[in-house]
């Protein structure tokens, strides 16, 4: 009597080839259909670990990957016409977008350092503009919003509230050339109500005002009351004396 044997399981060659083509560990020079180049680590056919990715358009990313996304710490550069690369972003990434703390070097010369969220400036950060203006404060989705300080190229500065990338709310503006302080309320970058004061270093400014602003203060109510009582008593005394003279 012949013995029963289970039939061998047949695996198609296409499935075997797909399993063998799944990339894991370190691979060199993997090209995409767009001729983008990746050199680095893989896991289950996804970029995972450390790697370098160069696009056909000249974008170069080098850093951490997680399940096919730029995730962790990494640097992003772009290629110049002479073939060299210039740094564009250096910092934290989450699922392919800047998220966390990082430096950004814009092509127009602006530099930003601070917090990011989903590829936007969000939270506390500093911006150095190409016109020598500096902003230090809070951001909301690429707009200056919250408390912040803007230092202009001429030395004048604004400290106060921001909304929708404009001065909105209570703030102070220091006129460093003339030595004056402007305190008030702003609306859409326009001061709608304020008062002016002299700062302590007015005499050392470039173009100080000729005369200082008079100091404002509350009057002494007790002194005013005493003077009014004295004046009233004198007035009553004069009236009594006039009546006495008339009766005589």
UniProtKB/TrEMBL annotation:
Record's keyword annotation contains Ribonucleoprotein: no
Entry keyword set: Repeat
Top-rank taxon, per record: Eukaryota
One protein family per Pfam: MORN
Name this polypeptide is given: MORN repeat-containing protein 3
Source organism per UniProt: Parnassius mnemosyne (clouded apollo)
């Amino acid at each position: 009597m012949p013995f029963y044997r289970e039939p061998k399981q047949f695996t198609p060659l296409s499935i075997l080839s797909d399993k063998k083509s799944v990339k894991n560990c370190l691979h060199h020079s993997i090209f995409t259909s767009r001729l983008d180049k990746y050199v680095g680590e893989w896991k289950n056919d996804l970029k995972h670990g450390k790697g370098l990715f160069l696009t056909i358009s000249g974008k170069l990313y080098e850093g951490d990957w997680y399940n096919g996304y730029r995730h962790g710490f990494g640097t992003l550069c772009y290629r110049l016409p002479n073939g060299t690369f210039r740094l564009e972003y250096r910092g934290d990434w989450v699922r392919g977008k800047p998220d966390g703390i990082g430096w950004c070097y814009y092509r127009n010369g602006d530099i930003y350092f601070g917090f990011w969220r989903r590829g936007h400036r969000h939270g506390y950060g500093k911006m150095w503009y190409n016109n020598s203006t500096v902003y230090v404060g809070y951001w909301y989705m690429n707009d200056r919003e919250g408390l912040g300080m803007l230092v202009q190229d001429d030395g004048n500065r604004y400290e106060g509230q921001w909304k929708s990338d404009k001065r909105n709310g209570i703030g102070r503006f220091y006129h460093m050339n003339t030595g004056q302080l402007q305190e008030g309320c702003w609306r859409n970058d326009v001061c709608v109500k304020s008062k002016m004061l002299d700062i302590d270093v007015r005499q050392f400014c470039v173009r100080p005002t000729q005369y200082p602003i008079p100091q404002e203060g509350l009057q002494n109510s007790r002194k005013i009351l005493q003077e009014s009582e004295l004046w009233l008593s004198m007035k009553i005394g004069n009236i009594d004396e006039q009546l006495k003279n008339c009766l005589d």
